[in-house]
């Protein structure tokens, strides 16, 4: 769809400081321990905040995928013209934040487990991934937020601090295929997510 002009081709910037192999996984091996990852990335927050600020200066809108409400709230206290959206955000408040975001009155939205599907903001041109995932489906949903075309959008910048790019590849390489009787997706990294462990790691407590 990017090649045919239906979606905007993004530019990728891999700023990852913690690789997926170093992040503890949950008991079901389905995803990472985000609390443990947040501890690992904490010493790098100054650089992360600086990168978000620089991206904000050259973007119309910046969407940040955070690992926790505490992290998003802490960042919002530092980042100018920003707001936080999470599952605990009241419906009325969320609607107002999204309206201001789309209108350009709010420059940066830090979201936690939200705004992956059903969020349409074609003018979005900056995206930051602080949330690592083992799910190729979730990864494609996150990056997919910035792929919508808009006549005034010149760039679509994806800045990754989560290790997702190294493990998942580029969004435009994601393809749907049939794995037996089940639908599956894969990227140029040749990793599938349905019923497949992306990495062989011991469960770390």
Q: Whole-number radius of gyration?
A: 17 Å
Task: Kindly estimate the percentage of residues that lie in beta strands according to DSSP.
Answer: 15-25%
Distance between the termini: 42 Å
Task: Write down the overall mean pLDDT.
Answer: 86
Within the largest sheet, what's the order of strands? Answer: 1-6-5-2-4-3
Helix-strand sequence: EHHEHEHEEHEHEE
SS elements, strand count: 8
Helix content: 25-40%
Give the class from helix and strand content and strand pairing: alpha/beta
Task: Quickly count the helices.
Answer: 6
Outline the low-pLDDT stretches. 192-205
| General form | globular
Which sheet architecture does the biggest sheet show? Answer: 6 strands, parallel
Give me the secondary-structure topology:
Elements (H helix, E strand, L loop, with lengths): L10 E4 L19 H8 L3 H13 L4 E4 L3 H8 L5 E4 L5 H13 L4 E4 L14 E4 L6 H9 L12 E4 L3 H5 L6 E5 L2 E5 L19
Parallel strand pairs: 1-6, 2-4, 2-5, 3-4, 5-6
Antiparallel strand pairs: 7-8
3D architecture notes:
By secondary structure, the chain is α/β, with parallel strands linked by helices. It is 27% helix and 17% strand. It has 6 helices and 8 strands. It has helices spanning 34-41, 45-57, 69-76, 91-103, 136-144, 164-168, and strands at residues 11-14, 62-65, 82-85, 108-111, 126-129, 157-160, 175-179, 182-186. A 6-stranded parallel beta sheet has the order 1-6-5-2-4-3, sandwiched between helices. Strands 7-8 form a two-stranded antiparallel sheet. Helix 5 links the parallel strand 5 (126-129) and strand 6 (157-160). The longest helix is centred in the N-terminal third of the chain and has 13 residues, at 45-57. The chain is globular, with a radius of gyration of 17 Å. 34% of the residues are buried. Mean pLDDT is 86; it is low at 192-205.
């Amino acid at each position: 769809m990017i090649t045919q002009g239906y979606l905007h081709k993004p530019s990728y910037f891999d700023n990852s400081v913690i690789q997926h192999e170093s992040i503890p996984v949950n008991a079901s091996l389905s995803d990472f321990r985000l609390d443990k990852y947040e501890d690992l990335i904490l010493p790098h927050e100054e650089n992360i905040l600086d990168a978000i600020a620089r991206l904000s200066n050259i973007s119309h809108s910046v969407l940040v995928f955070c690992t926790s409400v505490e992290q998003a709230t802490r960042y919002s206290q530092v980042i100018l013209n920003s707001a936080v959206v999470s599952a605990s955000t009241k419906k009325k408040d969320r609607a107002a934040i999204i309206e201001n975001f789309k209108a350009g009155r709010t420059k940066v939205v830090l979201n936690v487990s939200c705004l992956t599907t059903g969020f349409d903001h074609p003018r979005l041109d900056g995206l930051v991934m602080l949330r690592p995932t083992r799910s190729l489906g979730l990864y494609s949903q996150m990056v997919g937020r910035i792929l919508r075309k808009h006549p005034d959008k010149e760039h679509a910048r994806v800045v990754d601090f989560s290790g997702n790019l190294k493990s998942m590849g580029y969004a435009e390489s994601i393809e749907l295929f049939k794995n037996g009787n089940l639908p599956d997706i894969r990227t140029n990294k040749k990793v599938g997510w349905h019923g497949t462990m992306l990495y062989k790691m011991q469960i770390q407590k």
